[in-house]
Structure formats: C-alpha cells, structure tokens
C-alpha cells in the first residue's frame, strides 16, 4: 500500500528513479543548499516540485506505517535458508 501511494497518474517514476531518489535523500541532507534541485538532477526526468511532493508523500507513508494504519507484510521464510539472523531492532 505504501509504495502505491507514491505512484500518481501525474508523476510515474521507474524503480530506478525511486532507488535514485532514496540514495539522493541520503546524500543531500536537510542542510544542503538547493536540496530539491540537486535531488531532481540526481534522479533525472523530474523537477524540484515533483521531488519535494514525493518526499512529503513518503513522510505520510512512513507516518501511516508507524501508526499501524498499514500492516507489515507477512514475509515467507526462504526455504533454502536454515538460519535467520534478525537483530532485536529488526524484530520490533
């Protein structure tokens, strides 16, 4: 559900653009001058307005997930994996 929210008819992003967007957010923090412009150039095929809108939608998705409005998926255990190493933080 959360990832569907990020796709709107006005702005379709590829999987590659989404990954570039995530990486750009890590590179260009809130203190970066012209952050949205730099992220848009890093992602390509978009502009500052779309990037900022996508960021705001991402924050809303995170808020919904953390508040329990979006259930976490029930991941299937890999049949070939006999050992699962999950940290305490990941279990929460």
Largest sheet: none
Looking at the structure, what is the overall shape? globular
Helix content: 40-55%
Mean pLDDT level: 81
- Give the number of DSSP strands: 0
**How much β-strand is present in the residues?**
under 5%
Question: Gap between N and C termini, in Å?
Answer: 20 Å
Task: Compute the CA-based radius of gyration.
Answer: 16 Å
Structural class: mainly alpha
- CATH architecture assignment of one domain: Orthogonal Bundle
Q: Uncertain spans, ≥5 residues at pLDDT below 50?
A: 1-9, 88-92
Provide the CATH superfamily of one domain.
Homeodomain-like
Question: SSE string, helix = H, strand = E?
Answer: HHHHH
Query: Would you tell me which CATH topology of one domain applies?
Result: Arc Repressor Mutant, subunit A
């Amino acid at each position: 559900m959360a990832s569907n929210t990020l796709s709107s008819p006005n702005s379709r992003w590829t999987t590659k653009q989404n990954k570039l967007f995530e990486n750009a957010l890590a590179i260009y923090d809130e203190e970066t001058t012209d952050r949205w412009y730099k992220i848009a150039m890093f992602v390509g095929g978009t502009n500052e307005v779309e990037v900022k809108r996508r960021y705001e939608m991402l924050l809303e998705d995170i808020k919904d997930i953390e508040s329990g409005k979006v259930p976490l998926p029930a991941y299937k255990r890999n049949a070939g994996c006999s050992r699962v190493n999950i940290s305490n933080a990941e279990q929460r």
